[in-house]
């Protein structure tokens, strides 16, 4: 019997940097182990990257678009626009697969899906990591309620209705998609995860990262990851200001990069925050050491972005066995997870003094910290790639079945029963 096949479309895939590419690189080999023939179609990160290769059983095909840049929204848009026709043309030339999975990088890539569905007669699944164009509107990239945003929304909704299934990375995101008029029964929530082979709890006394960076006995409050437009930092900096003199043993350690990093560094200099340090992004092989070096992690998200994005950094924090203080909406997937597993604190309306008081309590209530750390580590075991691959396999198989859900209204075609 012929093995089922699937094609993923995403802008990044290792060795290119990018969270969605890393997630896909962890998921794809697991699907191969489960019996799927997996192809990933992506962009070429460097001129010397092979156009075609097989990695861990996954066939990787690449196209050469214009170089990606964060220098300006316009230049980034041009880079995206150069990729759409290249991805479509290569996908059309590749052998037919049973399922095509579109992702959200680049934005509106899902528009390619219906073309491939009609020409290749493949089933179609969308893996939503973000919701566009609402995210672009809330971040000020597109004028909210403007003509361009309205056009993008109409095209996006139309394309989503052509997909046979949708995978959302949070319950809050599912609500956003249902509000678009998509069938709730066709949307499955499969959260992101952390790879337990890469991230695990390491005690401070045995952690070389703490020794290398002379962290000593200080209580380390870490923000690790992307300094993106969706992440507010004002409350964190203000909390550092409040704690600078009164609690010098509390250190704020920022690890990563992104478009807001320069602003955060400038603010720290102007505020003379001697209790703040910055480190570059850490290699994947050192993630367990760097994440475990913290006592408490911070994750942030703007209130108006609830359901448009879901902070995936939480799963690495849990896998490292550390409590998380989430500064963001209580209805988000991150907040609900922290509350359910009792492994941190949720602050829906963050202010510097509120956060400072919260961190003081975490630093002095050792028994509470130890309990939350254990509960975080246990929760982290549940958010693993093996479980995600199982859910993906079920969804892809359902998409291949004869029964098809009409996403426009949730009714099954030809009188067949809908399947979740």
Describe this structure in words.
With 420 residues, this protein is of the alpha/beta class. The protein has 15 helices and 14 strands. The strands form two sheets. Strands 3-4-2-1-5-6-7-8 form an eight-stranded mixed sheet, sandwiched between helices. The chain has a six-stranded parallel sheet with strand order 11-10-9-12-13-14, with helices on both faces. Strand 9, helix 8 and strand 10 (250-257) form a beta-alpha-beta unit. Helix 2 runs parallel beside helix 3 and helix 11 (313-319) packs across helix 14. It is globular.
Question: How are the secondary structure elements laid out?
Answer:
Layout: E1 5-9, H1 19-33, E2 37-43, E3 52-55, E4 58-63, H2 73-93, E5 99-102, H3 112-120, E6 123-128, H4 134-138, H5 147-162, E7 165-168, H6 171-179, E8 187-189, H7 208-212, E9 219-226, H8 234-246, E10 250-257, H9 261-270, E11 276-279, H10 287-292, E12 296-300, H11 313-319, E13 324-327, H12 333-341, E14 344-347, H13 352-364, H14 366-382, H15 385-400
Parallel strand pairs: 1-2, 1-5, 2-4, 5-6, 6-7, 7-8, 9-10, 9-12, 10-11, 12-13, 13-14
Antiparallel strand pairs: 3-4
Helix pairs in contact: 1-15, 2-3, 8-13, 11-14
